[in-house]
Amino acid sequence: MTAPLVSIILPIRNAAATLPACLRSLARQTFPDYEVLAIDDGSDDESPAIIAAAAARDARIVPVEAGRIGLPAALNLGLALARAPIIARMDADDVMHPDRLALQYQALRAQPQLALIASRAVAFPARDVRAGLREYMRWQNRVLTPEQVAAEIYVEAPFAHPTVMFRRDIVQGLGGYTSEPWPEDYELWLRMHAAGLLMAKLPRNLLAWRERPDRATRTDPRYERTAFDELRARFLAADPRLQSGRPLVYWGAGRVTRQRARRLIERGFPPAAWIDIDPAKIGQTIWGAPVYAPQWLDRWPRPFVLVYVTNHGARDLIDGWLAAMGYQPGRDYLGVG
């Protein structure tokens, strides 16, 4: 049997309510040369029966009974079983645009320097999308180029996992997905970035990303704030941009921000200074470093700035201030979510 061009890894657990719509969106793809590795991760609803019926109608759908092994293991099983050199991710509660596979496959073929191509996404249903998710999607959907991904990789996960398409040999060569106490997708993006791989995003909404109250980001301890902070600190400590010899300045001198920054500081990256706009903090000394107003950064040689402010509106203002002083994202400063 001839191998397909794309293998879609579709992990499933108790998704009977949403799986039919997901499968219909796969059947409507304008790019036909794919297989679907439908990996059942221990469902106890009608999901296996839905997949079996779909496979009887469409030989491209391959049912895989995995038992309850967990998402990272299910994804690695999909990588091991995939016959195609290109992997597309999909979740059982989401819906693909009909041109998703065609456009992403074309982009990877046309840009061999890319290891991964994602797309913009739109969250639905609108009534369930809270302000925080809307703001996250607004930020994520503007991070498009490899340069933007590299500059903003520590802010948040720059891709919705089910939007990505990547080269299988590259991800397998990095060890696939890990089962550590943090999000397996974000950890993989950080590992790919650390390896010097280029990742980008198509400027089109090619996935409807379903919001639901039982999403893992709300219920799984791997998605708690402390898990993200520890994951970012581990990769930041190895980022060569922090090891150039430039003084490190931390933007955000509040108590919560300091506790988040402590994870990196304790790894050997002490602050030369702090930046804050609060008059009550300016002039203080925190952990041996002075607190200055933003104008202090308008100096030469430039320090390297780590912006630990998490509010998206405030971060936009900070980006503007830094740009006005000649700082370039990724080269002179990094946002840290």
Task: Tell me what the structure shows.
The chain is α/β, with parallel strands linked by helices and 337 residues long. It is 34% helix and 21% strand. It has helices at 19-27, 47-57, 71-81, 100-110, 131-140, 146-152, 168-173, 184-194, 216-219, 225-236, 255-265, 312-324; strands spanning 6-12, 34-40, 61-65, 86-89, 95-96, 114-124, 165-167, 198-210, 248-251, 273-275, 285-286, 289-292, 304-307, 333-335. The chain has an 8-stranded mixed beta sheet with strand order 3-2-1-4-7-6-8-5, with helices on both faces. It has a 6-stranded mixed beta sheet with strand order 11-12-10-9-13-14, with no helix packed on it. α1 (19-27) links the parallel β1 and β2 (34-40). α10 crosses α11 (255-265). It starts with 5 loop residues before the first strand and ends with a strand. The model has no long low-confidence stretch (mean pLDDT 97). Belongs to the glycosyltransferase 2 family.
Tell me the layout of helices and strands.
Layout lengths: L5 E7 L6 H9 L6 E7 L6 H11 L3 E5 L5 H11 L4 E4 L5 E2 L3 H11 L3 E11 L6 H10 L5 H7 L12 E3 H6 L10 H11 L3 E13 L5 H4 L5 H12 L11 E4 L3 H11 L7 E3 L9 E2 L2 E4 L11 E4 L4 H13 L8 E3 L2
Parallel strand pairs: 1-2, 1-4, 2-3, 6-8, 9-10, 9-13, 10-12, 13-14
Antiparallel strand pairs: 4-7, 5-8, 6-7, 11-12
Structure in a nutshell:
The chain has 337 residues and is α/β, with parallel strands linked by helices.
